[in-house]
From TrEMBL:
InterPro entries: DUF4142, Ferritin-like
Stored Gene3D superfamilies: 1.20.1260.10
Protein name, per record: DUF4142 domain-containing protein
Pfam families registered for this protein in UniProt: DUF4142 (PF13628)
Residue span, DUF4142 domain: 48-167
Taxonomy, superkingdom: Bacteria
Length: 175
């Protein structure tokens, strides 16, 4: 994938940024200004938010541990995008717990190093993006929150772009 394609993807992600404020792992499960506790969240939004939390946390790890420039650049874009999606879903500042399967993958990623980490990260992102596509497609069609529906509508083609990028990076690393 050339730099123009990566930059185009970055431009798409950047369009979300004005609505985003940083989420941090240190935040509690208490309501914060402009945010809410996970327990108060609309249950229909939870699949998107749970998946988004995994995508964000694994990407934050990849920003630190990634060996490949492509992995680190993609991870930074993914973190920014997931922060924007959380804001659009009204979950800015909410601490959404990882699902058990996501927590297991995070533990595997934390234990991996170098190219092994990069490949495991790419594979985890591909799987999580494939799942997220269906979740956002569903919310875009039937969600009740107009802002979140809009984010999901824009999110589906963005996820498709991400999958193309991720698969390309994976093929490059496989030789």
């Amino acid at each position: 994938m050339d730099r123009r394609q990566l930059l185009a993807g970055g431009a798409a992600v950047a369009s979300f940024l004005p609505a985003a404020r940083a989420l941090t792992a240190q935040e509690t499960n208490q309501p914060v200004e402009g945010g809410m506790a996970a327990g108060a969240m609309d249950e229909a939004k939870m699949p998107a938010l749970e998946g988004g939390m995994f995508l964000m946390q694994s990407s934050q790890l990849a920003e630190q541990k990634g060996e490949s420039d492509n992995v680190r650049a993609f991870a930074a874009l993914e973190v920014a995008e997931q922060q924007a999606i959380a804001a659009a879903f009204g979950a800015e500042g909410a601490q959404i717990p990882l699902r058990e399967d996501h927590a297991e993958i995070m533990a595997q990623l934390e234990a991996a190093e170098g190219q092994e980490f990069d490949m495991a990260y790419l594979q985890a992102q591909i799987t999580a993006h494939e799942e997220a596509r269906g979740v956002h497609e569903n919310y875009a069609q039937s969600g009740q929150d107009p802002m979140a529906r809009g984010a999901s509508m824009v999110g589906v083609p963005s996820i498709d772009s991400h999958l193309v990028m991720l698969r390309s990076f994976e093929q490059q690393m496989q030789g």
